[in-house]
Specification:
This protein is about 40% helix and about 25% strand. It is of the alpha+beta class and about 220 residues long. The strands form three sheets. The chain has a four-stranded antiparallel beta sheet. A four-stranded antiparallel beta sheet has the order 2-7-4-5. Strand 10 and strand 11 form a beta hairpin. It starts with 17 loop residues before the first helix and ends with a helix.
């Protein structure tokens, strides 16, 4: 199945030798996840990693008072749930489908068997972990140094990618959780971008970037 070949598009597996990758692909399982279905919750035992084949998966944490913070929204090719492969720690976040989605599941044990036989492959893992650590450092710096409009502009640009027209794949509450602010403050920032002709709302959740340079500048202030 085409879904099983997704492993070769992820940072974790792309650099593996073809024979190693082929062996891992034989161990995968394809799972269908309905909209709003939770794949795993914070605190659950960790046994597998996943790659998004189709759809959108939100990775989110819950505070003690029930507030949610969306860490990431993963689309086709997105890898998640891989870090406990190395320490067997419980899940540190929830994984929830934002739309009907398909994921490829790979249990940890086949990966561990290969790494025990080929410890040289661990350098690939080290590079991945360094990339993740840098992303975490950047997110922490954003929370400290950027105000809500700047963080909102940055998240909108990330969600749009290279396209000027994009559909927001989140509810207003989920976008606010991703920005780390209230829905009201995030909506106010978006309204400001629209009033300044940096952004255009086309329908309920369809947007068009009118001035990417201005948004990019605001995302750094």
């Amino acid at each position: 199945m085409a879904e099983r070949r997704l492993l070769d598009s992820t940072d974790l597996f792309a650099a593996l030798p073809p024979e190693v990758l082929a062996a891992l692909q034989e161990e995968t399982t394809v799972r269908e996840i309905a909209r709003n279905e939770v794949l795993f919750e914070q605190g659950d035992p960790s046994t597998s990693l996943y790659v998004v084949s189709e759809g959108r998966i939100a990775i989110a944490t819950q505070s003690g008072d029930g507030r949610e913070s969306v860490i990431a929204v993963l689309e086709d090719g997105g890898l998640f749930g891989e870090l406990p492969l190395f320490d067997d720690a419980p899940r540190v976040a929830d994984a929830r489908a934002l739309v009907d989605s398909t994921v490829v599941e790979l249990e940890y044990e086949p990966v561990r068997r290969i790494l025990r036989k080929r410890p040289d492959l661990l350098w690939i893992i080290v590079r991945l972990l360094v990339t993740r650590l840098r992303a975490t450092d950047e997110a922490l710096a954003d929370a400290v140094f950027l105000d809500v409009p700047a963080r909102t502009a940055k998240r909108l640009l990330e969600l749009a990618g290279e396209a000027d027209r994009f559909t927001l794949p989140l509810t207003q509450e989920e976008l606010a959780a991703m920005v780390g602010a209230s829905r009201e403050r995030v909506n106010k920032a978006i309204s400001t971008f629209i009033r300044l002709d940096w952004l255009e709302l086309q329908g309920r959740s369809n947007y068009r970037i009118l001035d990417r340079e201005a948004l990019e500048d605001r995302a750094t202030l």
